[in-house]
Amino acid sequence: MFGKEKKGKKHLNQRVDEITTLIGEGCSFEGDISFPSSTRIDGSVKGNVRGEGVLIIGESGFVSGEVRAVEIIVYGRVEGNIESQRLEIKRNGSVVGDVFTRSLVVEDGAIYNGKCFMEQASSGSLEGSSETDKEDVFTTES
Fold first, then answer.
1. For residue 77, which of 68, 86, 85, 65 has the smallest C-alpha distance?
2. At 119, is the pLDDT very low, low, confident or very high (cuts 50, 70, 90)?
3. What is residue 21's predicted lDDT score, i.e. its pLDDT?
4. What is the average pLDDT value for the chain, to the nearest integer?
5. Biggest distance spanned by C-alpha atoms of the chain
6. Is 44 helix (H, G, I), strand (E, B) or coil?
7. Where do the DSSP E strands lie in 1-142?
8. In the chain, where the domains are located
9. pLDDT tens for residues 78-97?
10. Among the four residues 45, 83, 86, 106, which has the most C-beta atoms within 10 Å?
11. Percent of the chain, pLDDT > 70?
């Protein structure tokens, strides 16, 4: 039991250690961005963000637009819809928008306002699923 958690945690840390793209604090980017590996955003992005690795929105990070990545960890703020296999919203993190994911973790102190559509991990990819395959499990309105 504990061995599996440590192994999974080590695998995540390896992916996070491989961050090849960084939008630093104080930087702002306007337009769509895509990345082939793990990325961290500590600045501001206005536009759609798409990636094939882990995307980390740092504490000072802000994204306004649709976000799609394999795994997304939010310490900062996202305003827009999110599609991922796994989404973590950390303490003090904020997401305003609809979420399409297989796994959702919302820490105590995090803010999430939107609809959540989840599917079982054993089914096909998120891209291949239709709107009727997704189950509306959580709705919050402002």
1. 65
2. confident
3. 84
4. 81
5. 45
6. strand
7. 21-23, 28-30, 33-35, 39-41, 44-46, 49-51, 54-57, 62-64, 67-68, 71-74, 77-79, 82-83, 86-89, 94-96, 99-101, 103-106, 111-113, 115-118, 135-139
8. 17-139
9. 999 999 999 999 999 999 99
10. 45
11. 73
pTM of the model: 0.74
For 43-55, the pLDDT digits (tens) are 999 999 999 999 9
- Give yes or no for a contact between 87 and 103, defined as CB atoms under 8 angstroms apart: yes
Q: HSE of 121 in the Cβ direction (CA atoms, 13 Å)?
A: 4
CA distance 67 to 81: 6
> What single letter denotes the amino acid at residue 51?
G
- 55: β partners: 39, 72
Distance CA 35, CA 48 (A): 11
DSSP H or E stretch at residue 6: helix 2-17
25 pLDDT exceeds 60?
yes
The helix (H) or strand (E) run that includes residue 76 is: none
